[in-house]
Amino acid sequence: MAEPPVIIWEEEVKSVLRYMDLVPRLEDALGKFSRRDSAAVLQPVRTAVPLQKHSGFMGLMPTYMENDGVLSTKFVCYYNRERGSTLPAVQATVVLLDPELGNVKAVMGGEVITAMRTAALLMAPGAEVLAILGTGRQALSHFNVFTEMFSFKEVRVWSRTKEEVARFVRSAGGGVRGCGSAEEAVRGADVIVTVTRSTEPVLFGQWVKAGAHVAAVGACRPDWRELDDVLMQSAVVYVDSREGALSESGDVILSGAEVFAELGDVINGTKPAEREKTTVFKSLGMGVEDAVSAQLAHPGGFLDHRLKAARSQSRTLQVQHGAHQDDRHRGAVMSDLFNPLQQEHGDWISVHGMAAAFLLEYNAIKKLSNKPGKRLCGSHYITVHFLLTFWLGAVTELITTLTASSNTVFRPRCVRAEHSRTVLRSVTVCSRGVRSGVGTPGPPGPVSCNF
């Protein structure tokens, strides 16, 4: 029988994936896609499901790489939020499946993977000024990606409100100059990233210097735009998928611009990278990029050692300090503390381990409640309830069994133990990097997390 899927949350994906590992594989996958070999990459155009009530849509992006044994799909929700909304404009989840059995192998956060798209092939060497139009989560992700890959002397950012610009500058950790207008941000810039929620052009060709590279990430619907006709018709336009661009990209469709090449064509050497000219890469994202990234980050894959090392380091730091120092790693710590539950005698657990788990969760809640703007979900309290229930039952049994043995390991038969085992396998608990369970009686399984 297939094992339950592994849950890998955004921070763990970020800690595992590195451009030095990912970029060669992305380029290889894009090259395979552009050769249109169905055994190498089989990827239909993204299916869009309208979410009219919420002014958005859900995109489904399946991919099958037969030769590599990779089957995956990404679920990504886009929203055209009202100005000033604190709700996310994009949410993405990648699901990795076993192509033979059909079961889900892993579910992982897709925001980092979505941001890691290969456009570096089109950038002119020696680029010094980066301009970003937009200040949302995707804008920050692209800032992190581009500044990790390249050394810019200046980074500029613009958004429609000063408050959003100031927030982005704080989040970026300094070294970013906020601009009062989009024109101010892009004039003289070598690289321009548009990652906005705009449905009308925000970047105009008359502002863009000759030889600049534009990475257009927003406007992923046929009637949405970020770039004007002048820029689209004067630049050399590259896309990730011709079929996708001609059916989904308003920038391409409404401007009537000619698509010069797919990025995979450049990788395969069938089309040149016109770096000396003004270039536009219209990035819609492709399932094959998500498939390769997910396979790379999946436990047992190429980066399995890095995932294990990250979790081990997190656990060591937490135990050494005796308190939860960083709530981003709480899930990894909780997962490791519950690992004894997964062994052959899965219902044996250490008193000290359960007490430590309770204290870690309590400290995490205490820390989170002191953060401005942070809201606790009910599942935090459910976690503490079950940990405390198990721990109290454990102590009670320990007292009764110490006379027979000096062993501090016990079988926890606390009040409603069998019921608790069932709930513990199915209850929603805020944890990360653990296997999801099934709500059936039996040895208690690991904690699952659903947001």
TrEMBL record:
<dbReference type="GO" id="GO:0047127">
    <property type="term" value="F:thiomorpholine-carboxylate dehydrogenase activity"/>
</dbReference>
<dbReference type="Pfam" id="PF02423">
    <property type="entry name" value="OCD_Mu_crystall"/>
</dbReference>
<dbReference type="GO" id="GO:0005737">
    <property type="term" value="C:cytoplasm"/>
</dbReference>
<dbReference type="GO" id="GO:0042403">
    <property type="term" value="P:thyroid hormone metabolic process"/>
</dbReference>
<dbReference type="InterPro" id="IPR023401">
    <property type="entry name" value="ODC_N"/>
</dbReference>
<dbReference type="InterPro" id="IPR003462">
    <property type="entry name" value="ODC_Mu_crystall"/>
</dbReference>
<dbReference type="GO" id="GO:0050241">
    <property type="term" value="F:pyrroline-2-carboxylate reductase activity"/>
</dbReference>
<dbReference type="InterPro" id="IPR036291">
    <property type="entry name" value="NAD(P)-bd_dom_sf"/>
</dbReference>
<comment type="subunit">
    <text>Homodimer. Binds the thyroid hormone triiodothyronine (T3); T3 binding inhibits enzymatic activity.</text>
</comment>
<comment type="similarity">
    <text>Belongs to the ornithine cyclodeaminase/mu-crystallin family.</text>
</comment>
<dbReference type="GO" id="GO:0070324">
    <property type="term" value="F:thyroid hormone binding"/>
</dbReference>
<protein>
    <recommendedName>
        <fullName>Ketimine reductase mu-crystallin</fullName>
        <ecNumber>1.5.1.1</ecNumber>
        <ecNumber>1.5.1.25</ecNumber>
    </recommendedName>
</protein>
